[in-house]
């Protein structure tokens, strides 16, 4: 779709007959090429039973499209312009609470950070999978969320279990709170040894943008180089 807010609001009959599974999905991600790839992979309705009825690139567009189309499932990126996936969940809370036609959310993100996983689950998402997931597994995850299951990529479920088993609120890290969500993503990848070109490819941004984020992180944390940054991240178990 050329317009990220384009949506189909007409009632849809299940594809392939009454006995076949069918789910209406909205894609929310700020990278158009990624949305196009996901739609090409899972949006072949006759084959997969998944119908993509709308797309959005930021929080405002997401709320508008989701409200207009009332899909069964929203594939939601965590980091979005306008407040992120958590803000979309907050503003769509009445739709999630609808007892007759609930809108369910499945986070689909490049990030596998515990704080991102816990944040969207606390916000009401039914699951969290990373962008390394295969098309077949993503289709299966969408249907499981539609049916009310909780779905997680391997090891991410442990973050949620640990968080909700604890009665204590996590400590506030003032240094980490100075960083934006995108800066945290770049920080983790730098600390894991990724080159700038690899980070740019994984996050769908330019090398120049990666360099800008690294400079901002070093300045905010008062560090001198990526080696100090790696030690800082490792000490906080962010890697």
UniProtKB/TrEMBL annotation:
Keyword Transcription regulation: yes
Gene3D superfamilies: 3.40.50.2300
Keyword DNA-binding: yes
SUPFAM superfamilies the record matches: C-terminal effector domain of the bipartite response regulators, CheY-like
Domain Response regulatory: 24-146
Molecular function terms from GO: DNA binding
Ranges where the record places region Disordered: 1-21
Pfam family, one: GerE
Keywords from the named record: DNA-binding, Phosphoprotein, Transcription, Transcription regulation
Signal sequence interval, chain numbering: none
HTH luxR-type domain residues: 172-237
Example GO biological process: regulation of DNA-templated transcription
Protein's recorded name: LuxR family transcriptional regulator
Organism: Streptomyces griseorubiginosus
Gene: nreC_3
